[in-house]
Amino acid sequence: MNFLTSILSQPAPGPRIKKQRRGAEIKSPQEIEIMRQSARIVATVLKEISEMVQPGMTTADLDDYAEKRIREMGATPSFKGYHGFPASICASINNEVVHGIPNRKKVICRGDVLKVDTGAFYNGFHGDSCITIAVGEVTPAAAKLIQVAEEALYKGIEQVKAGNHLLDIAGAIQDHVEANGFKVVEDFTGHGVGRNLHEEPSVFNYRTHEMPNVKLKAGMTLAIEPILNVGSKFTRTLADRWTVVTVDRSLSAQFEHTVLVTDKGYEILTDRTQV
């Protein structure tokens, strides 16, 4: 789930980025082990959803499943009730960028580009991850968007190691996205994650001097989450005060992992290939 200015300061979300005031928390080995478990729950749910999605299902069907599975594994949904968000997943389709509210009337169709974002709170710590799913056969343009979005996530993750900086991540993501002809959405960033769903630092997906270029240290846990649009990078929020869409109705894709910084590199805590 994305880091928003007003998510930390107001009842309703908005598209601006909060100024950083505190340092990133370093997790202890015991806390990291708990985060491995919360992240594994998230990875399990997203893997299962990716395998079960079919045209004709509703986004509410996916939300029901996610909540059931999170609770079965001994956790609680991180998103449900968070600043009033009414569901356990964000389900955003096609030109919906982030924070789509699951709905029993929103039917998933063949050819849709479906983003599913969820989190789990287990023994005091959160895991957070997002995937983009091609529902059935999608257009070549949509397939390329999804591919580049996932590649951009891993380009950013490859820069994670103690001694590197946040803008190493941002630059790697931006360069890959723009080299492939897409736009980085700048209204949202990744974030620290742990005791709180959103912690410092903000993890940008593009180069900027707006925030301190924090040096990475072993024990930091980051939610890295590039968001790409086919057309304009600009977004707007719908009347429900949550769902964000592209201003030009172009397609959008997003991938996210919770990542641990280590002395030698990184560990992807929400790795779906390990569940």
Strand order, sheet with most strands: 8-7-9-14-15
Number-wise, the strands total: 15
Strand content: 15-25%
CATH class: Alpha Beta
- Which fold name fills CATH's third level, the topology? Creatine Amidinohydrolase
> What would you call the structural class?
alpha+beta
The rounded Rg comes to 17 Å
Your description of this structure?
The chain has 275 residues and is α+β, with helices and mostly antiparallel strands. The protein has a single domain (29-274), classed as Creatinase/methionine aminopeptidase superfamily (Creatine Amidinohydrolase, Alpha-Beta Complex), CATH 3.90.230. Helices cover 25% and strands 23% of the residues. β11 (235-237) and β12 form a beta hairpin. It is globular, with a radius of gyration of 17 Å.
What are the SSEs and their pairings?
Elements (H helix, E strand, L loop, with lengths): L28 H24 L6 H14 L3 E2 L11 E5 L2 E3 L14 E10 L2 E10 L5 H18 L8 H14 L3 E2 L5 E3 L6 E5 L17 E4 L2 E3 L5 E3 L6 E3 L5 E3 L2 E5 L4 E3 L7
Antiparallel strand pairs: 1-4, 2-4, 3-12, 4-5, 6-10, 7-8, 7-9, 9-14, 10-13, 11-12, 14-15
Give the structure's gist in a few sentences:
Helix content is 25%, strand content 23%.
Defining key terms:
five-stranded antiparallel β-sheet; four-stranded antiparallel β-sheet; alpha+beta; 25% helix; disordered N terminus; 23% strand; 275 residues; Creatine Amidinohydrolase
